[in-house]
Description:
Blueprint: E1 8-12, H1 26-38, E2 43-46, H2 58-72, E3 78-81, H3 87-96, E4 104-108, H4 117-130, E5 135-139, H5 141-144, H6 150-159, E6 163-168, H7 173-182, E7 188-191, H8 197-203, E8 207-210, H9 217-228, H10 232-248, H11 256-264, H12 281-297
Parallel strand pairs: 1-2, 1-8, 2-3, 3-4, 4-5, 5-6, 6-7, 7-8
Helix pairs in contact: 1-2, 3-4, 4-6, 6-7, 8-9, 9-10, 10-12, 11-12
Amino acid sequence: MKNINFSGTGVAMVTPFRKQPETVDFSTLESIIEELVEAKVSYIVALGTTSEAATMTPKEQQALQEFIVETVDGRVPIVLGLGGNNTRAVTERIHETQFDGISGILSVTPYYNKPQQKGLVQHYKSVAEMSPVPVILYNVPGRTGCNLSAESVLQLAEECPNIAGVKEASGNLNQVMEILRNKPARLQVISGDDALTLPMMAMGATGVISVIANALPNEMVQMVNLALKDNIRKALPLHYRMLPLMHAIFEEGNPSGIKALMEIQGKISSSLRLPLCKVSKQLYNKISTLYNVYKANS
């Protein structure tokens, strides 16, 4: 299996929708992809949480995947979001998926049914055995209701050669350090939280799968590249300049906040699909003010 480097800035890409009807705005999606490629992001994550894939039909997901692959045209790697809380269903989806143009899978921990650690390990072993491309584990207990422990991550890294990394979004830096201290060299630890990216990279993480990079790709790429070169001090001003926006766009959930910011930038409509809603007017105004301050200080 080809060894893919998932260091640097990955982008959990949004899906722009038209206001009426709520169909995918492929023209705007193309513009987003071109901006990300021009900014030299390291890779794009398609059909992740930020894409609102959970609200799409299988036909829509397939159309989106094909469009992204065709538009990217091999210029950057593409990681496909592919997970769930039914192991058999996930492995069947992997078996049925067309992986042309896809460099890896980002697979979220099973949600809602709160499996034990041994269940999580067996789930990911099944995913890794079925996947024809490298797998990135995705630990986000705030969304899923379960935490993939450091011990489980390390066991999976040792026993499954094609588990290439873990996107860590637990917010638990002690857990992150435990993984970093004991992991095999080939396992990449990736920040799943924009605001913790620089602290995690200072500890040894290799990058981020970013939400705010949808709106600020050049800035995020610059900060992450500086950190990869151990220039943490030079990266700090960028981190602190973006930090208020990083926090604000998550106040009422993702991708509601990032879509509001991108609408303020004139890039997309902030339309979402239920059960997600647009951010409140108060938060919208706050994000707008913070963005104006950000531009003034750039």
